[in-house]
Amino acid sequence: MTSCALGAFKDLLWQRFGTASSFGKRLCFAGKSSTGTGHCEYIDHLFINSDIAAALWRWFSPILHPPNSNNEHFTSWCWRIVQGSNLRSPFGFVALYGMLLITWEIWKERCKRRYDSKFTPINTIIDKISLQISHAIHQPVFKTAPSENQLSVLLSLGYKPSIKSIKIKLVRWIPPVYGLCLNVDGASKGNPGLSGGGGCIRDSNGNISLAFAFHYGFGNILQAEVRALHDGLMLANEFGLSINQIYSDSALLVQSFTNNSSPSWE
């Protein structure tokens, strides 16, 4: 499932039915219903209370609390799920994707029963939905980890999401033995893109003697690193500060000074 599919789903609901509240009140399928009777078939009954709907929502209830026609219309419930689902989390992804798949399978089964007089076993439909969710959840790498309870529910249903691991890196500043040190850094939003840089000058006790930051406009990250180093040295000279050490996290820049060679500017 993609953000494009989610946007298309929202647009479909809005363009076809105007608002979620009017959706549930207005839609009625005239003719024979999915249960075989001849009465008017309302959307709340079809997608909440019909035999196929009740069975599917009951199966999916560990992930998503089933809709209740006594509390709100089915479309209002759908709209609330669409707006409230966190797609960065595997639990939110499965909840929204499962809701869409179940809704689609209910509609398909309704049409099959009505026009072809054919019935699909509920376990077959559940297996199909579960397989689609399992396939979809393996593709993205989620940035937000689920809670322990949510992960337990996902695993119990056979869904094993890939979650981006958070690596903790301890950074320790090593002060100069004597004199002052210059620490610089540059960055660009895109490479190339809008760039900037800055830095600070500290003594052996960690006290800041000078700090600076500049916007450099359009450029690549190496250019930003070099300009930050240049500005730091120029400011140190302007204020009469003698620099004994220079720190930079740009391996390419450090290597160029170590090898006494010009870096590649591309």
Automatic annotation (TrEMBL):
InterPro entries membership: RNase_H-like (IPR053151), RNase_H-like_dom_plant (IPR044730), RNaseH-like_sf (IPR012337), RNaseH_domain (IPR002156), RNaseH_sf (IPR036397)
Pfam families: RVT_3
Boundaries of every RNase H type-1 domain copy: 176-266
GO MF terms held by the record: nucleic acid binding; RNA-DNA hybrid ribonuclease activity
Designated name of the protein: RNase H type-1 domain-containing protein
